[in-house]
Amino acid sequence: MTQDPRENYTNVEQKSYGVEELQVVGEQLLAKVKELIHEGNVRRIIIKQDGNSILELPLTIGVAGVILAPALAAVGVLGALLTQCSIEVVRSESPAEYVANKVEEVSDEVPPTA
């Protein structure tokens, strides 16, 4: 039986509107960063160890995977080297607002039924 990797992520602190800090084990770092990128409402990811910034990934809407490939390779190397680190996530909107906006977008695209 496989364990859900999200169970190991702990939301440590909601710092301010749109900013949260997650604790991850080094080997799960790359998977979590990829997950955050796919969420779509993340503007910046900052990887820290002992409070010091190690890597900052600015994300913009429409960033191509080709552009992110070197950054993700660096995250993979960091994950192999670090035992425990934190990820500071800066969002363009709260997760609830993001979901509400996506639902509204999709509902506008669905034709009414007769």
From TrEMBL:
Keywords: Membrane, Transmembrane, Transmembrane helix. InterPro entries: DUF4342. Pfam families: DUF4342. The chain crosses the membrane at residues 59-82. Residues 19-91 form the DUF4342 domain. This is DUF4342 domain-containing protein. It comes from Ktedonospora formicarum. The lineage of its organism: Bacteria, Bacillati, Chloroflexota, Ktedonobacteria, Ktedonobacterales.
